[in-house]
Amino acid sequence: MRVGLFVTCLVDLMRPRIGFSALKLLETAGCEVVVPATQTCCGQPAYNSGDRANALALAKKVLSEFEDCDYVVAPSGSCAGTIRSHYVDLAGDEPGLAARMAKLSAKTYELTDFLVNVAKLQQVPGSYAGSITYHDSCAGLRELGVKAQPRALLAQMPGVRLREMSGAEDCCGFGGTFSLKFGAISAAIAEKKCADIAAADVDAVVLGDLGCMLNIEGKLSRMGAATKVLHVAEVLAGNLDQEER
Amino acid sequence: MQVRSMHFKARAGEKLADAQLQVNLGRAKSKFVDKRAHAILDLEDFEATRGAAKELRDLTLGDLDLWLERFETEATKRGATVLWARDGAEVCQMVIDIGRRHGVRKVTKSKSMLSEEAGLNQALGAAGIQPVETDLGEYILQINDNEPPSHIIAPVFHKSKEDVSALFARTHHLPPKTDIQEMTREAREVLRPHFLSAEMGISGGNFLVAETGSVALVTNEGNGRMVTTMPGVHVVITGIEKVIPTLEDLATLMRLLPRSATGQSISNYFSLLTGTARSGETDGPAHMYFILVDGGRADMVGGEFAEMLRCIRCGACMNHCPVYQAVGGHAYGWVYPGPMGSVLTPLFAGIENAIDLPQAATLCNQCGVVCPVKIPLPELLRRLREKQVEQRLRPRSERLALNLWSWVAQRPAWYALATKWAVRYLNWLAGGRANIPVLGVAPEWTLGRDFPAPEGRTFRELYAERQAKRGAR
Question: Does the beta-carbon distance from A14 to B423 stay under 8 Å?
Answer without folding.
Answer: yes
